[in-house]
Design a protein that fits this description.
Elements: H1 18-23, E1 28-31, H2 33-36, E2 51-54, H3 62-74, E3 79-84, H4 91-105, E4 109-113, H5 127-132, H6 135-138, E5 143-148, H7 163-178, E6 182-189, H8 193-205, E7 212-217, H9 222-231, H10 238-245, H11 248-251, H12 258-270, E8 276-282, H13 287-296
Helix pairs in contact: 3-4, 8-12, 9-10
């Protein structure tokens, strides 16, 4: 009997997709101190100049946050730490955090958000209060990003509407017009381009012109994504994952964000003034996995000409 000749299958070559490459220019990625510790050298994973957000989860010591910021800055990356208003005790604490980030790590940019804590730890409960404090301007911070929610946020609008989040973005748009701060909206992740596009177009029509850095979940196991999506309050686009989970042929395959990004890329190619300018990755399946996927699909630290 002849022996069957089983040959090792080579990994298929990645086919270049010009539109996908275009939308991945100037992408950013998010880490936490505990996940960053697992990376021996970020230079092996991320193009120099990639903006790296550092998520500040309740209970994380500020020493760990600043040390992570310094390490990333030393390795050649612009760092954008989170400032969750509800875990900052008072103005003196805010000033201290800003001074430490700036003095020890050269940080000049921040993502300001209310934070997922139900009861504020002190004087602040919203990102607008942080902006009004004047502390970021006093310290010479050049860039401030704020949170966006393409599918709404039931913590802010419990009835399921968007009235409160829309009013907050209108205030932040006016803040950008009366100050020198370079601003953009960084959003929660979702899995369907249609609501993202509709939301971005609606903001633009309502006079909110801040560039949008759209949140995208990086490659991960389907079960992992569904768990994070439910925990983070992802809206109707969760159905994209649930539908995939019902397909046995796809259930065990890792999710990759090709489809949502290609749809966004196609819309931007047809609408050059589209206000979604950058992609911001949430590496839910691991930093290395996400960073490798981005590079393989043409991502780079170079910003689009109209990006911010």
């Amino acid at each position: 009997m002849a022996l069957l000749n089983f040959k090792k299958r080579e990994k298929p070559a990645v086919v270049a997709d010009a539109r996908l490459e275009a939308v991945l220019q100037g992408y950013s990625i998010e880490v936490m101190p505990r996940t960053a510790e697992k990376v021996e050298n970020f230079r092996d994973l991320l193009p120099e100049g990639t903006r790296v957000y550092i998520a500040h989860i309740e209970g994380t010591p500020i020493n760990d946050m600043v040390a992570t910021a310094k390490r990333l800055a030393d390795e050649g990356y612009p760092v954008m730490p989170h400032f969750p208003a509800r875990i900052i005790k008072d103005k003196a604490t805010l000033a201290d955090w800003i001074a430490r980030y700036n003095g020890e790590a050269g940080v000049e940019q921040a993502l300001l958000l209310a934070g997922g804590v139900e009861k504020p730890h002190g004087d602040f409960h919203s990102s607008m209060q942080l902006m009004e404090s004047g502390e970021f301007d006093k310290a010479g911070f050049k860039r401030l990003h704020v949170a966006g929610h393409p599918e709404g946020n039931k913590d802010i609008d419990p009835n399921g509407g968007t009235k409160s989040v829309d009013e907050a973005l209108q205030w932040k748009q006016k803040f950008s017009e009366r100050t020198d701060a370079e601003m953009a909206i960084a959003t929660q992740f979702a899995f369907d381009a249609k609501p993202m596009i509709a939301w971005a177009d609606r903001l633009n029509a309502e006079g909110i012109k801040l560039p949008i850095h759209i949140g995208i979940a990086g490659p991960a196991k389907l079960q992992t994504l569904i768990k994070f999506a439910i925990a983070c309050g992802v809206g109707p686009s969760l159905k994209v994952l649930q539908k995939r989970a019902m397909d046995v042929s796809k259930l065990l395959l890792p999710y990759e964000p090709h489809e949502v990004l290609r749809d966004l890329a196609a819309h931007r190619a047809a609408n050059p003034d589209f206000n979604i300018t950058n992609v911001h990755f949430f590496p839910l399946g691991g930093i290395k996995t996400n960073a490798t996927w981005a590079i393989e699909n043409g991502g780079s630290a170079t910003k689009p000409a109209n990006a911010s």
